[in-house]
């Protein structure tokens, strides 16, 4: 007849997770809840005080809430069914058919009120982690449970129930107030007493604190014995004027402090049950002049006792949890401190070993009482480099004992810089050995903390051998530069000296050729030899020009005479002049020229690049076609020369652009190996690039890209 609170899997406002009652099918769970609810409701009504519609302690409400919390809200039909089964026979009046139907109709809203009470209480029940935590484990949870799930939600059942009784003419308006109050408090007390006990019992490992099972049994025996003595009326001071019921309080405090949630809830339940039984039989320390007043006293006593005990148990539980958390934190801190100490010890040992075996000298210096920095630590390398037999001979010596005369101020400045900025170096300097000799060293100074003051870590290594090698390298470099200068000067002079007789010889040969054209009878005999002499003269002239260009480029004297040119016209003009050479080599030159590719370049240098690429294509691709293409591409112009000659291996494709480098043997193909090097330098002087794509036996393609300037 009374409502009970309905649990839900994930408690209000985001409770943890669904209860694991999945192994019990819903119909069986609903039926089982209905049976237990009906039995407990019948027990509660059997203890009711006239007129019999309400009881001081209604256990069914607490059972309903615990069932919904543990089994899920899906079991709510069991609450309604159990309430209906309990109240229908209790209210049934068969005197007339109409009264019989009315009796059944009254039981229906009473069951609805009990169901709504259980569902609302489950919804408002404080959240908890079913895997790790106990329900009502905090004082705030107990307060929320008491105010919302117990007292607030019980208003629903009390209102539905008393209103239904009045509507069914089973209760008069004169008795509405007292019945409603008793109903409300009875349901609230039932929730306060039964729900915590059932939730705690559902977690057997949390029944008592470890090792206190015997204490729980002894406590219950003592409590039940005292309650029997109290109800027997054999105490010297007995009667309504003596509130002996409050003597139970020490037992409840004992349970709350020592026996955990289960022990506290079990004690509250046993006291509530005994006091309610006593009130029903008129044997209670709270017996008063009226039944209603006695009932109210019992409800207030049971409710306040339950609330006080739950709060006390929660306070103790929170304290123990805090102590356990503190102990875990302390253990974790101790573990971390131990690990950190071990790490620091290991790190310190590694550092010590590294410093000791290091070939670099290490000194640690601290300011003494006189303000002078003195050595407090030195490794073996320091004593060895400074000419001492042991490191102990260095301890306590001032820094300036090892500074060469006249360099003290520089050393002081470096010390000040290291203290101010944290480090100095590496810098080169000198130190004085104990025998007075000087040692060239590289020095690093670093500031390190040492209490309230700072110490200086000085690390230095012997670089005497390195300095000697550097001096040798510098001398060799100077000699090499002088040799290169002399070579370039020689090339320049030799080229100029060769240029003069070659020019004169070329002019004489050309004059002779013109004369031969006037004497046909001699031309057939002398013309072939004269033609060979002219070609060789031109070849020698080209070689001399290349040597001159090497000199100009290495000395940074390559001059460009920039003018506006049509790249296609330049290529076409050059090919006309080289057509005879190509024909003699059996090469067909195929042109693909885009019209009017205009830019600003040096014509003679551009022709020099083109001639070098075409000459190479004819030389290495004799007897095979050659493709020459010109394209304009926005702000750039491109031309490429493709032959189908011997090709160039991938590993040689970058090397051929270096001075005096060739991809093939000079015995098979002549030349200095300067053409492509000069061509790249000219192209780069224009701001462009030259690249090659080639494979052995498949020919080569040289592509030049130039900005239009």
Automatic annotation (TrEMBL):
Signal peptide: none
EC number(s) recorded for this UniProt protein: 2.7.13.3
Residue ranges of every copy of the PAC domain listed in the record: 425-475
Record flagged with keyword Nucleus: no
Coiled coil: 312-350
Protein keywords: Cell membrane, Coiled coil, Kinase, Membrane, Phosphoprotein, Transferase, Transmembrane, Transmembrane helix, Two-component regulatory system
Ranges where the Histidine kinase domain occurs: 493-709
Pfam entry (one): PAS_9
SUPFAM superfamilies: ATPase domain of HSP90 chaperone/DNA topoisomerase II/histidine kinase, Homodimeric domain of signal transducing histidine kinase, PYP-like sensor domain (PAS domain)
Spans through the membrane: 28-47, 53-70, 145-168, 180-201, 251-275, 295-317
First-level EC class: transferase
Cellular component GO terms held in the UniProt record: plasma membrane
Domain PAS residue range list: 347-422
Membrane topology label: Multi-pass membrane protein
Catalytic activity: ATP + protein L-histidine = ADP + protein N-phospho-L-histidine
MF-aspect GO terms: phosphorelay sensor kinase activity
Locations listed in the record: Cell membrane
PANTHER family: HISTIDINE KINASE 1 (PTHR43711:SF1), TWO-COMPONENT HISTIDINE KINASE (PTHR43711)
UniProt protein name: histidine kinase
Organism: Polyangium spumosum
């Amino acid at each position: 007849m009374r409502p009970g609170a309905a649990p839900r899997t994930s408690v209000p406002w985001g409770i943890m997770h669904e209860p694991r009652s999945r192994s019990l099918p819903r119909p069986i769970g609903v039926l089982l809840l209905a049976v237990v609810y009906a039995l407990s409701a019948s027990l509660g009504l059997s203890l009711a005080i006239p007129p019999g519609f309400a009881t001081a302690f209604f256990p069914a409400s607490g059972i309903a809430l615990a069932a919904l919390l543990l089994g899920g809200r899906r079991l709510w039909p069991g609450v309604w069914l159990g309430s209906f089964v309990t109240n229908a026979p209790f209210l049934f009046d068969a005197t007339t058919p109409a009264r019989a139907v009315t009796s059944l109709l009254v039981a229906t809203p009473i069951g609805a009120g009990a169901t709504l009470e259980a569902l609302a209480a489950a919804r408002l029940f404080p959240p908890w982690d079913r895997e790790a935590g106990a329900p009502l484990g905090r004082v705030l949870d107990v307060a929320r449970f008491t105010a919302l799930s117990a007292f607030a939600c019980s208003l629903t059942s009390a209102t539905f129930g008393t209103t239904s009784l009045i509507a069914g003419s089973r209760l008069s308006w004169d008795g509405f107030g007292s019945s409603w109050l008793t109903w409300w408090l009875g349901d609230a007390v039932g929730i306060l007493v039964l729900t915590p006990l059932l939730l705690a019992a559902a977690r057997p490992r949390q029944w008592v604190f470890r090792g206190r099972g015997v204490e729980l049994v002894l406590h219950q025996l003592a409590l039940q014995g005292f309650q029997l003595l109290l109800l027997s009326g054999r105490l010297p001071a007995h009667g309504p004027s003596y509130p002996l019921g409050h003597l139970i309080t020490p037992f409840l405090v004992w349970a709350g402090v020592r026996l955990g949630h289960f022990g506290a809830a079990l004690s509250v339940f046993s006291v509530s049950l005994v006091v309610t039984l006593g009130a029903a039989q008129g044997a209670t320390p709270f017996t008063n002049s009226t039944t209603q007043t006695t009932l109210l006293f019992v409800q207030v006593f049971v409710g306040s006792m339950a609330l006080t005990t739950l709060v006390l148990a929660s306070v103790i539980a929170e304290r123990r949890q805090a102590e356990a958390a503190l102990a875990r934190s302390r253990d974790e801190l101790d573990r971390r401190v131990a690990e950190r100490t071990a790490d620091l010890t290991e790190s310190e040992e590694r550092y010590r070993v590294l410093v000791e075996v290091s070939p670099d000298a290490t000194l640690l210096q601290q300011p003494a009482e006189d303000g002078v920095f003195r050595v407090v630590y030195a490794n073996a390398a320091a004593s060895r480099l400074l000419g001492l037999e042991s490191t102990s001979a260095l301890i306590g010596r001032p820094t300036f004992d090892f500074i060469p005369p006249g360099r003290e101020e520089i050393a002081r400045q470096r010390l000040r810089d290291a203290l101010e900025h944290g480090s100095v170096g590496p810098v080169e300097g000198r130190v004085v050995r104990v025998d007075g000799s000087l040692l060239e060293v590289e020095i690093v100074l670093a500031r390190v903390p040492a209490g309230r003051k700072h110490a200086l870590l000085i690390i230095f290594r012997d670089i005497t051998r390195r300095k000697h090698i550097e001096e040798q390298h510098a001398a060799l470099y100077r000699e090499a530069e002088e040799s290169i200068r002399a070579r370039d000067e020689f090339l320049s002079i030799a080229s100029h000296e060769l240029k003069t007789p070659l020019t004169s010889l070329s002019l004489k040969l050309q004059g002779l050729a013109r004369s031969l054209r006037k004497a046909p009878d001699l031309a057939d005999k002398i013309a072939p030899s004269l033609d060979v002499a002219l070609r060789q003269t031109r070849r020698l002239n080209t070689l001399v020009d290349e040597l001159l260009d090497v000199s100009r480029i290495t000395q940074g004297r390559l001059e460009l005479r920039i003018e506006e040119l049509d790249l296609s016209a330049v290529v076409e003009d050059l090919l006309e002049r080289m057509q005879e050479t190509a024909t003699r080599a059996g090469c067909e030159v195929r042109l693909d020229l885009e019209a009017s590719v205009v830019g600003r370049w040096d014509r003679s240098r551009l022709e020099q690049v083109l001639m070098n690429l075409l000459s190479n294509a004819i030389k290495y691709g004799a007897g095979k076609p050659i493709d020459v293409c010109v394209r304009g591409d926005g702000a750039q112009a491109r031309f490429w020369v493709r032959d189908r000659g011997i090709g160039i291996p991938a590993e040689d494709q970058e090397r051929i652009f270096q001075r005096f480098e060739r991809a093939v043997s000079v015995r098979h193909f002549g030349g200095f190996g300067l053409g492509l090097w000069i061509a790249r330098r000219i192209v780069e002087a224009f701001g462009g690039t030259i690249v090659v794509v080639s494979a052995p036996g498949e020919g080569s393609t040289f592509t030049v890209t130039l900005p239009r300037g």
